[in-house]
Design a protein that fits this description.
Layout: H1 3-8, H2 14-20, H3 28-45, H4 56-73, H5 80-95, H6 101-105, E1 109-116, E2 119-124, E3 127-131, H7 138-151, E4 162-166, E5 172-176, E6 186-190, H8 199-204, H9 210-221, E7 226-230, H10 236-243, E8 253-257, E9 269-273, H11 287-294, E10 301-304, H12 311-320, E11 327-331, H13 335-348, H14 355-365, E12 368-374, E13 380-392, E14 395-409, E15 415-421, H15 429-434, E16 447-450
Parallel strand pairs: 7-11, 7-12, 8-9, 8-10, 10-11
Antiparallel strand pairs: 1-2, 1-6, 2-3, 4-5, 5-6, 12-13, 13-14, 14-15, 15-16
Helix pairs in contact: 3-4, 3-5, 4-5, 11-12, 12-14, 13-14
The structure holds adenosine-5'-triphosphate and magnesium ion.
């Protein structure tokens, strides 16, 4: 089957199609064949350890020469466009991440999901697209996964078949391979590096409104402890990055993550990243170890990128004992669910603490839970801001200050509804006031319709 016909079978965005399509007439197997011959010839000719210092234009010229040689010796004529595509592919192969390199460079793509070597999806503006891009085979995909993982000093093999890593631009990577991944190696990349969303972006996209931002800014400056909750890909980390701008510049911030993806703008940020065990099962440094260690680093704020396990207990204790002003994210379906998940996480740390004591600790440690969601139309939206007000009859009491009320979907499937204040004033008004911040009273009384 001709490559162009093959491409026609898959749904793809026109730009992706343009990027990988060689000229008409060339068989995809012949194309892969010649590419791999060029690659092998280059391996013989070049010193790969010094290749990163070679200017791009020179490297391309070398590859063009080799390509001409190979194409004439193999009697596979290539037109100019096919040569260009082949050269770009080979450059990506040598210096980058092979066939997915153009996706990495494309700033409009947010997620790259490699389900198997020939099934690659991307997410653009909240919508998933199948791309026509493919790896040659599983071994080829595995080679690229290895390259990513080893560049951050981690490894992936049968005994340790899943790993978190990141790309040099800060994008977050997860790789999982057989036997856990049944149909071959899989790769999920959450791109983060290029154009992080700003507060202005979130407001102009109607993800959140200025009144709620004003309250959050006051909460952060007055060092309340905040948990950002939501489903996967609901925009928690993005909001954390954006909100971190409200942390005063003079503070020393310690960030703790499994795979560093936070991009704080402050001058005084020290970043810690956990480490999985090595081949002999030794050397693991967990989030929990890092939280404990961070408290000895004279932090003004400790920011845990995502709480997901036993470190929850250390986080709650730190929040309660002299390290307020923490912000973290958690996977949960609602504000209340976030609190029950914290309980489960604490119990993962095998702590023997009664349920009531644990709830009391949570209620006094966490002040605010902001819940986010990814709506059916792909939008990420603020859903609620709740305050923890205390305990009653063994249950943590919470109250909503602001909510997004989804009223329906318009004709093109976009969500409409309104952001509103519930009219309840914050229990932390006094605390915020004492920190020298004047809250505008109007923010507790507004109703703003969006869409329709
Ligand atoms: N308000 C927004 N509008 C549009 N896109 C957004 C918005 N917030 C986040 N995104 C995009 O959605 C993707 C997921 O965002 P983010 O990583 O912040 O989510 P998350 O909830 O932390 O995900 P995870 O659960 O995987 O950690 C990113 O590509 C990000 O650029
Ligand atoms: Mg996240």
């Amino acid at each position: 089957m001709k490559l162009v016909e093959k491409l026609g079978m898959t749904r793809s965005t026109p730009e992706l199609y343009e990027k990988i399509a060689p000229g008409p007439g060339l068989d995809i197997h012949a194309f892969h064949n010649i590419k791999s011959l060029v690659h092998t010839r280059l391996v013989d000719l070049l010193d790969f350890s010094a290749i990163e210092d070679v200017p791009d234009a020179t490297l391309r010229e070398w590859i063009r020469d080799v390509t001409r040689d190979v194409s004439s010796s193999e009697k596979i004529p290539l037109n100019r466009k096919e040569q260009d595509v082949l050269i770009s592919d080979v450059v990506d192969e040598i210096l980058g991440l092979g066939p997915i390199e153009p996706l990495i460079k494309d700033n409009t793509i947010q997620d790259i999901l490699v389900n198997n070597f020939k099934n690659i999806y991307v997410e653009k503006s909240g919508v998933l697209y199948l791309t026509p891009i493919q790896f040659r085979d599983n071994a080829h995909l595995m080679q690229i996964i290895d390259r990513i993982v080893s560049s951050v000093g981690r490894r992936i093999d049968e005994s340790s078949p899943m790993v978190d890593a990141r790309l040099s631009d800060g994008s977050r990577v997860n790789a999982i391979i057989p036997p856990l991944a049944i149909d071959g190696p899989m790769l999920s990349i959450r791109k983060f590096g290029y154009t992080p969303l700003t507060l202005e972006d979130l407001i102009s996209k109607n993800c959140i409104v200025p009144q709620i931002v004003e309250f959050l800014s006051a909460a952060i400056k007055s060092k309340l402890n905040i948990l950002l909750s939501g489903g996967t890909g609901s925009g928690k980390t993005t909001l954390l990055n954006v909100l971190s701008a409200f942390i005063p510049k003079a503070e020393r911030i310690v960030t703790i993550e499994d795979s560093a993806e936070l991009q704080l703008q402050q001058p005084h940020v020290v970043r810690l990243e956990s480490r999985p065990a090595n081949m002999e099962g030794k050397g693991e440094v967990s989030l929990r170890d890092l939280v404990k260690n961070s408290l000895r680093m004279r932090p003004d704020r400790v920011i845990i990128g995502e709480v997901r396990g036993a470190e929850a207990m250390d986080m709650l204790q730190a929040m309660n004992t002299g390290h307020p002003g923490s912000i973290s994210t958690i996977h949960a379906n609602s504000a209340r669910d976030a609190l029950s998940r914290l309980e489960v996480m604490v119990s993962m740390g095998a702590m023997t603490i009664s349920e009531t004591a644990l709830r009391a600790l949570t209620a006094s440690a966490i002040n605010i839970v902001v819940h986010l969601a990814r709506l059916p139309d792909g939008q990420r939206k603020f859903i609620s801001l709740s305050e923890i007000t205390g305990m009653e009859g063994g249950i943590i009491t919470i109250q909503d200050l602001f909510v997004f009320d989804q009223e329906g979907l318009d004709a093109s499937g976009n969500v409409f509804g309104s952001f509103k204040a519930t009219g309840i004033p914050s229990v932390f008004s006094e605390h915020i006031n004492r920190s020298g911040i004047k809250l505008n009273r109007d923010i507790f009384n507004f109703n703003r319709g969006i869409g329709k």
